[in-house]
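Notes to self after the Tuesday call (sharing in case useful).
The group wants a holo model before anyone commits to mutagenesis around the pocket. I volunteered. Ligand is D-galactaro-1,5-lactone. Logging inputs and output together so the record is complete.
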Amino acid sequence: MNERQLPQRLLLTGAAGGLGRVLRESLKPFTRQLRLSDIADLAPASSSQEEIQLCDLADKAAVDALVQGCDAIVHLGGISVERPFEEILEANIRGVFNLYEAARRHGVQRVVFASSNHVIGFYPQTQRLDTTVPHRPDGYYGLSKAFGEDLANFYFDRYGIETVSIRIGSSFTEPRDRRMLSTWLSYRDLTELVRRSLVTPKVGHTVVYGASDNPAGWWDNAGARHLGFVPQDSSEVFRAKVEQQPPVPPDAPAALYQGGNFCAAGPFETLPPVSAT
Ligand code: NAI
Ligand code: 15L
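Result:
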């Protein structure tokens, strides 16, 4: 399969996070320089291949400086769980806008966006989804990822910046509960999906589900076949262990919806209580 040139300087945002720490190591063979960024402290550069640049994604000038000199971006940074809208607005919505504006200004041609299954979280677990179904976000977090996907689409149509939006399922060392038997993405498969997203010659704006080869999976990636991503791992090897957990009641969000418990988060009160009068 044809591959475009590897990035000369790859920016990894969210590098202090769970997946950031994984990709910090596993993406090293696929770039000359790796610029690592987060709002939180990062371990010092381990070699001259690494550059550390702390940055709040909500700070437009800082993000502009962060992106300068990079030719591709893997964007993991932001809030990764359901939180009050005001927090999501800054880190995820303003953050992804700042990132694409900086990409436009500095001529970055390729972005890999860590989207989430929570973009489609309110679909029932009984429905198989392809990559074209309308969004059905399950909270402010899912809405921010839907915004990120639409922003990626706009920056391709308007400015030709290509993005792969990976709707990551559940990427941990192993599935943590029954739902994750359907949504799990191994770190090895995550790395290969990110690599394919960087080197596939033409992606426009491609949406792909980030899941391993789970027989219990809900997602159809036929629309992203051009990425050539073939998952190697499967959640089935963990099934017996996961099924030792107490069963989930059939009417619980974790058993009904693809987004699981995220569908029951909130509301978040950020104003004083409404008075009784
Ligand atoms: P994480 O929460 O461990 O890492 C996110 C990182 O972003 C953190 O290190 C945090 O300090 C940083 N961050 C937060 N606000 C920031 C800001 N204003 N400026 C700069 N950095 C900021 O999350 P994880 O699990 O590593 O996920 C990485 C990405 O993948 C996230 O965007 C998440 O939404 C997405 N994702 C992850 C899934 C998973 O299963 N791990 C599933 C679906 C999506
Ligand atoms: C996500 O989007 C979260 O970032 C991650 O922490 C998991 O909760 C995952 O989805 C999931 O749905 O399991």
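Two things stood out.
The CA atoms of residues 214 and 236 lie 7 Å apart.
The radius of gyration is 19 Å.
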